[in-house]
């Protein structure tokens, strides 16, 4: 049983459809990054999962239960941090957390104290006097204090300094070590690459990729920098199909390579090359391709991935 | 019911409730004092000038025919706009704060992501304004009791005769709270909700205040809420306005249920 299953979920506001029949599943005990540019539909999807909004059609289940009809039961085992966390500002941090624990009918005192120590948050102060980072910490404690089986975090690192971010990542890794599941929405690619073991990429209301980080990295484009012997650089028409030029001058080319390394070496061996740098694939370039390439429909992405569009080598 | 949500709403509303209750009691006590000192002269003065008497009647929404006793004067205080507004104001504020207010502040996200059904949230917060409505409806009665003890009239004040008026006032508050709940659940802007409720209340009140004097309006008087709230008649006739109480409470309940239906199904937009 997957903690999250979404099948053909659509969401419309009036005549505007913001989710176009998305499918996604999150496996148990995974730390899944939920990526996409602003307005891609990440928060809408998360709000559907939390029962805050209702999908127009399709099925969304959490722990095999439909989120709209059985949301209250599901939410007992779910911790949620909204994209913009807000509290009653005249409360102290402690009062707010006690309220949430009381409404959940749980005794969370020990975990609240532990998390407050971990995140270095003074719970005796009024929330009005909290900085945005402190409010974010309070939101995180609120989401984690009842030790939920599923943690849904909508851009949790907003406003956090690098030290707290490190603490958060540690906590999340421990949660996953305990076979609990985390869905982590972000548009910061590096933190997803650093933290997550799977990723779902959303663009314009479509899931355009759902894969393990390892598999994505295997498919990611390699960054290449080739310096040719003076005056021998090939023209654009002489370049192999898998090489996408990002920058070039008279003697050098900087670009990405989407094919296999032997194919690249084979082509280079036939050229008067002075120097070559081939970097390990980073997800940044891959994600940027996903984010920005408007030529490709979501179905193509799902079937073939980005490399298929650029050619798979020579 | 969820105790934590109920306690939180009660705590949030406590200051407003205490201030409005105190204001309402103090007003009725002062009204008693004013009536004791100025009442007989005022009535004598008004009886000489029919035009002024009519203006006075319209401003209070009561027809002052026949003998005007101290008990009737007290009943008039129950229809005074200060008493009505000190009841309706806090109720409108509490209802809108618990529904659209939560959405507008962005706190609804966390509240509705708790393992609590939406109707439970709605019910738990509604209990607070219903309780407040009961307290606010009892305040004029408390004012009469305190006022009559502090500034005794020659004529004895029959406190039990004011109990049906208080219950009638409670039903009126329920109607206002119910209709505010319904409108509030259909919107996500608190200011908009308050504006609509105030406008509707104002139309209803104005209609009932001028109703005895403009025959055309009399035909539609059943549409106004104050048509079902006649303290002077209740005290004068020493009767229980059962039908009026049922109409107001029934209207309040139906509106409240309609609000719950919408609340349980509505999308919560990003605050």
Descriptive overview:
The complex is a heterodimer of chains A (314) and B (271). With 314 residues, chain A is α/β, with parallel strands linked by helices. Chain A is 35% helix and 28% strand. Chain A contains 11 helices and 14 strands. Chain A has a 6-stranded mixed sheet with strand order 6-7-8-3-9-10, with helices on both faces. Chain A has a 4-stranded antiparallel sheet with strand order 2-1-4-5, with helices on one face. In chain A, helix 6 links the parallel strand 7 and strand 8. In chain A, helix 4 runs antiparallel to helix 5. Chain A is elongated and about 75 Å long. The C terminus of chain A is likely disordered. With 271 residues, chain B is mainly alpha-helical. Chain B has one domain. In chain B, helix 7 crosses helix 8. The longest helix of chain B is centred in the N-terminal third of the chain and has 46 residues. Chain B is elongated, with a radius of gyration of 20 Å. Chain B starts with a helix and ends in an 8-residue tail after the last helix. The model of chain B has no long low-confidence stretch (mean pLDDT 85).
| Contiguous helical run count of chain B | 11
Into which percentage range does the β-strand content of chain B fall?
under 5%
Mean pLDDT across residues of chain A: 85
Strand count, sense and barrel status of the largest sheet of chain A are: 6 strands, mixed
Structural class of chain B: mainly alpha
CA-based shape of chain A: elongated
Helix content of chain B: over 70%
What class do helices, strands and sheet pairing of chain A give? alpha/beta
Supply Rg of chain A. Answer: 23 Å
Rg of chain B, nearest Å: 20 Å
Shape of chain B: elongated
Secondary-structure element order of chain A, N to C: EEEHEEHEHHHEHEHEEHEEEHEHH
Describe the secondary structure blueprint for this structure.
The complex is a heterodimer of chains A (about 325) and B (about 270).
Chain A: E1 4-13, E2 16-26, E3 31-35, H1 42-49, E4 57-62, E5 65-66, H2 71-74, E6 78-81, H3 93-104, H4 109-119, H5 132-144, E7 150-154, H6 162-177, E8 181-186, H7 189-195, E9 198-203, E10 206-212, H8 213-219, E11 222-228, E12 243-248, E13 252-257, H9 261-269, E14 273-278, H10 283-292, H11 298-310
Parallel strand pairs in A: 3-8, 3-9, 6-7, 7-8
Antiparallel strand pairs in A: 1-2, 1-4, 4-5, 9-10, 11-13, 11-14, 12-13
Chain B: H1 3-48, H2 50-60, H3 70-79, H4 81-105, H5 108-111, H6 118-150, H7 163-185, H8 190-210, H9 215-218, H10 231-237, H11 242-263
Helix pairs in contact in B: 1-2, 1-3, 1-4, 1-6, 3-10, 4-6, 4-7, 4-8, 6-7, 7-8, 7-11
């Amino acid at each position: 049983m997957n903690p999250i299953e979404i099948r053909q979920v659509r969401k419309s506001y009036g005549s505007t459809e913001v989710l176009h029949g998305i499918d996604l599943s999150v496996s148990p005990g995974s730390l899944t990054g939920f990526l996409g540019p602003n307005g891609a539909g990440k928060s809408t999807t998360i709000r559907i999962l939390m029962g805050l909004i209702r999908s127009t059609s399709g099925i969304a289940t959490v722990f095999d239960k439909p989120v709209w009809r059985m949301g209250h039961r599901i939410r007992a085992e779910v911790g949620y941090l909204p994209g913009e966390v807000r509290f009653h500002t005249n409360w102290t941090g402690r009062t707010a957390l006690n309220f949430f624990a009381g409404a959940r009918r749980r005794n969370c005192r020990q975990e609240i104290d532990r998390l407050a120590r971990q995140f270095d948050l003074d719970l005796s102060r009024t929330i009005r006097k909290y900085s945005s980072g402190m409010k974010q910490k309070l939101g995180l404690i609120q989401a984690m204090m009842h030790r939920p089986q599923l943690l849904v975090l909508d851009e949790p690192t907003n406003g956090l300094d690098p030290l707290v971010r490190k603490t958060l990542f540690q906590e999340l890794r421990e949660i996953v070590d305990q076979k609990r599941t985390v869905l982590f929405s972000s548009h910061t690619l590096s933190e997803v690459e650093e933290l997550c073991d799977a990723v779902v990429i959303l663009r314009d209301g479509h899931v355009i990729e759902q894969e393990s980080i390892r598999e994505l990295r295997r498919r990611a484009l390699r960054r290449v920098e080739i310096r040719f012997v003076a005056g021998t650089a090939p023209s654009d028409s002489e370049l192999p199909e898998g090489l996408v030029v990002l920058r070039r001058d008279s003697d050098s080319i900087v670009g990405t390579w989407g094919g296999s390394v032997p194919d690249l070496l084979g082509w280079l061996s036939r050229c008067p090359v002075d120097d070559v740098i081939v970097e390990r694939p980073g997800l940044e370039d891959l994600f940027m391709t996903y984010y920005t390439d408007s030529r490709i429909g979501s179905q193509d992405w799902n079937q073939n991935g980005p490399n298929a569009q650029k050619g798979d080598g020579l | 019911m969820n105790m934590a949500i109920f306690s939180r709403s009660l705590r949030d509303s406590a200051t407003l409730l205490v201030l409005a209750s105190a204001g309402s009691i103090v007003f009725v006590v002062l009204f008693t004092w004013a009536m004791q000192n100025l009442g007989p002269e005022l009535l004598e003065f008004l009886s000489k000038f029919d035009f002024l008497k009519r203006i006075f009647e319209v401003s209070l929404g009561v027809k002052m025919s026949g003998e005007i006793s101290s008990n009737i004067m007290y009943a008039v205080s129950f229809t005074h706009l200060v008493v009505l507004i000190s009841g309706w104001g806090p109720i409108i504020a509490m209802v809108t704060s618990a529904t659209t207010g939560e959405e507008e502040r962005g706190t609804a996200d966390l509240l509705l992501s708790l393992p609590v059904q939406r109707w439970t949230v709605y019910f738990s917060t509604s209990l607070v304004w219903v309780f407040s409505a009961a307290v606010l409806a009892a305040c004029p009665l408390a004012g009469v009791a305190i006022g009559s003890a502090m500034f005794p009239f020659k004529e004895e004040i029959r406190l039990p005769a004011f109990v049906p008026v208080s219950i009638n006032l409670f039903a009126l508050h329920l109607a206002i709270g119910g209709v505010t709940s319904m409108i509030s659940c259909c919107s996500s802007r608190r200011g908009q909700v308050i504006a609509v409720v105030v406008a509707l209340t104002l139309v209803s009140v104005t209609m009932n205040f001028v109703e005895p004097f403009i025959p055309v309006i009399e035909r539609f008087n059943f549409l106004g809420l104050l048509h079902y709230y006649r303290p002077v008649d209740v005290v004068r006739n020493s009767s229980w306005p059962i039908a009026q109480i049922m109409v107001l409470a029934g209207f309040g309940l139906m509106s409240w249920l309609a609000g719950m239906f919408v609340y349980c199904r509505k999308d919560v937009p990003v605050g």
